[in-house]
Design brief:
This protein folds into two domains: about 280 residues, 3-Layer(aba) Sandwich (Rossmann fold); about 110 residues, Anticodon-binding domain of a subclass of class I aminoacyl-tRNA synthetases (Four Helix Bundle (Hemerythrin (Met), subunit A), Up-down Bundle), CATH 1.20.120.640. Helices cover about 40% and strands about 15% of the residues. The chain contains 14 helices and 14 strands. α7 crosses α8. The two termini are about 35 Å apart. 5'-O-(N-(L-cysteinyl)-sulfamoyl)adenosine binds next to α1 and β10.
């Protein structure tokens, strides 16, 4: 799938600074291992039916800064993202508004691309939709069945298309995976069983489905239903992919195993990241990722922003009202990646004023500096030290504040400041 127009990312001198992040699975801050000189990252993409609200933007801007930090340490970055372009919420939404689900997905994905480009987010190297991944999903589900990690559950004949009397869905067997692999239910999310039982039905799970071995077993393949999209599933019969297997399959095909960081908002801890990791381990015996890093939830008036609550602040809406996309980035980066926060006009105004202060300081900055061009100076050091320490963007912004207030020890030229702030924070201070 086409991604979006990449922003300008200027080169800066490489500064070695190993990244430490909070890992949800271990509930501890850990050093992110670097294998074969690369930063490897999968971030769960949008389900294109309510793009792009500030919650989405929060996720992708914080991970963008992670990518920028890796680049700033001289690493190559391998970044993969999906688009859940077929799933229940999208199909339900399309039916509710009377449009074809494909048109809704394409329209919202396009809006997302425009918003990401406006916010200066570096696009992933691999950007893939669920629809274009169906053959690989079929491969992996067949493999899980062969390995005894999945089982079939007959679909309700009432739901099947005209002329079909029987068809099976396929479910992941949590119990078999716990016995046959190192994965345990709760290993990634860190939740206990009661919490998982509470979250599962609200996040796409179907604990009540008759015939399941464990109420928490997730769907891998849904047999074709009346009026639902469907694809060739070879031995599985026609149908469509479950949700978690999509990300597991895309990550397994396009990243090493394990890759360094699996990311997304904290609402993906369970069931999504729990089970995409479980599916991957059950398929080939190797853990999916080294570190599971989750960003906070953005709300409005104290409630999580979501289509169902109708409290969306759209990025395109803010920009249409005249908000500067750089101020939107600063707004997002003013809170720590892991912090939950609520949008207010006041916060956006503060971010806009901060941008103006930085621009004024840049206009006053000297042409000359007391550092060789290939040597990192204090501004870069300050920003990257903050980012290396748990991706602390607020501390990185405070470093820029200190520079703007003339508090850094060394003199940095205007050119260098622009380059460093653009490369690491994605904020272009010129103009
Ligand atoms: N397509 C799946 C992931 S495979 C999905 O969750 N799509 S989504 O459109 O619902 O969310 C896309 C990303 O935005 C996810 O990382 C999700 O955690 C994050 N997100 C969604 N709502 C919010 C919110 N209110 N605040 C912060 N992040 C959010
Ligand atoms: Zn995902």
């Amino acid at each position: 799938m086409r991604s979006w127009t990449p922003p300008e990312v200027p080169e800066i001198p490489a500064l070695s600074a190993s990244l430490h992040l909070h890992d949800t699975a271990r509930d501890a801050v850990v050093e992110v291992p670097v294998r074969t000189g690369r930063g490897t990252l999968y971030v769960c993409g949008i389900t294109p039916y309510d793009a792009t609200h500030l919650g989405h933007a929060n996720t992708y801007v914080h991970f963008d800064v992670l990518v920028r930090h890796w680049l700033g340490t001289g690493l190559e970055v391998q970044y993969v993202q999906n688009v859940t372009d077929v799933d229940d919420p999208l199909i339900e939404r399309a039916a509710a508004v009377g449009v074809d689900w494909r048109d809704l997905a394409e329209e919202q994905t396009e809006l997302f691309r425009e918003d990401m480009a406006a916010l200066g987010v570096i696009p992933p190297g691999v950007y893939l939709g669920a629809v274009e991944t169906v053959p690989q999903v079929v491969e992996d589900v067949e493999r899980l069945l062969e390995r005894g990690m999945a089982y079939r559950v007959p679909a309700d004949p009432e739901e099947l298309p005209e002329g079909t009397s029987e068809a099976d869905d396929v479910y992941f067997d949590d119990g078999a995976a716990e016995t046959g692999t190192d994965w345990r239910l709760g290993a990634v999310s860190g939740y206990d069983r009661l919490t998982m039982e509470r979250l599962f039905p609200d996040r796409g799970g179907d604990p009540e489905r008759p015939g399941k071995r464990d109420p928490l077993d997730p769907l891998l393949w849904r047999a074709r239903r009346r009026d639902e999209p469907h694809w060739d599933g070879r031995s599985l019969g026609r149908g469509r992919p479950g949700w978690h297997i999509e990300c597991s399959v895309i990550a397994r095909r396009h990243l090493p195993a394990p890759f360094a960081v699996q990311g997304g908002g904290s609402d993906l801890r369970f069931p999504h990241h729990e089970f995409s990791a479980a599916h991957a381990t059950a398929a080939d015996g190797v853990p999916l990722a080294d570190v599971y890093f989750h960003t906070g939830m953005v709300g409005l008036d104290g409630e999580k922003m979501s289509k169902s609550k109708g409290n969306l602040v759209l990025v395109s809406g803010l920009l249409a009202e005249g908000a500067d996309p750089r101020a939107v980035r600063i707004l997002i980066l003013s809170e720590h990646a892991r912090t939950d926060w609520s949008f207010t006009r006041d916060r956006l105004d503060r971010a806009t004023r901060r941008l103006a202060r930085w621009q004024e300081a840049l206009a006053r900055a000297p042409e000359e500096e007391d550092r060789a061009a290939d040597e990192p100076e204090d501004l870069q050091r300050g920003i990257q030290t903050a980012l290396a320490d748990g991706l602390d963007a607020p501390a990185a912004l405070r470093t820029v504040d200190r520079w703007a207030a003339g508090e850094l020890a060394t003199t940095t030229s205007a050119r260098r400041v622009r380059t460093v702030v653009l490369a690491l924070l994605g904020v272009d201070l010129t103009a």
